[in-house]
Specification:
Elements: H1 2-26, H2 32-41, H3 45-53, H4 58-68, H5 74-92, H6 96-127, H7 134-188
């Protein structure tokens, strides 16, 4: 049960940490891209750069990289934005594989408890020399059932948490992609 307790605490910590980071990444001023466009169209690249630097979000860091590359060939700008996007995605997904591992390992540890509980029950039965006392069997069966239930509970909660976080990361990725496409479209517009 101790390994299951440790895994459950670790799963809760990872979930809360990632949830807070993902929520922070999702928050971006709806006017951010419009302000960047206004600065770039107005020729104030430094203003766009300052806006990006003062905005703490993955989208802002991607656009900042693109703003820094203004004047270079479009494929170079696109590649730079894509590289920053990949780094930001790595930060968002940090520790998610550990949560997925907990979701898979916790039930296995529970099943291991089931096996050890049944071994204990049958050992008690064999050591009794034919004098079967239901209490002997009930202790082993109790251990088996409790560890199984605990392992499944930790695994289910970790699995649901993992899938929820993955869906939240996908929403951030969508915002990042939409913003980068929006910025690249801006660079392709003819000068007015």
């Amino acid at each position: 049960m101790l390994p299951l307790l440790i895994l459950s605490l670790l799963a809760v910590y990872i979930f809360i940490d990632r949830y807070l980071q993902i929520q922070k990444a999702k928050k971006i001023d709806p006017e951010f891209m419009q302000n960047v466009k206004d600065y770039v169209i107005g020729g104030n690249v430094q203003g766009a750069l300052t806006l990006c630097q003062n905005t703490d979000s993955p989208v802002a860091r991607m656009i900042e990289k693109g703003v820094r590359r203004i004047g270079k060939p479009l494929p170079t700008i696109e590649a730079a934005i894509e590289n920053i996007g990949k780094l930001e995605l790595l930060q968002l997904e940090k520790r998610l594989p550990a949560l997925a591992t907990i979701a898979g390992v916790a039930p296995m540890i529970g099943f291991l408890g089931t096996v050890t509980g049944m071994i204990r029950a049958f050992y008690q039965l064999s050591a009794s020399g034919g004098d079967v006392d239901p209490k002997m069997l009930s202790i082993g069966i109790y251990e088996a059932l409790v560890t199984t239930a605990a392992g499944l509970a930790v695994g289910i909660i970790a699995y649901v948490g993992y899938n929820f976080l993955v869906s939240q990361v996908e929403k951030v990725i969508f915002k990042m992609e939409a913003s980068s496409v929006d910025f690249l479209d801006l660079l392709q517009e003819p000068a007015k």
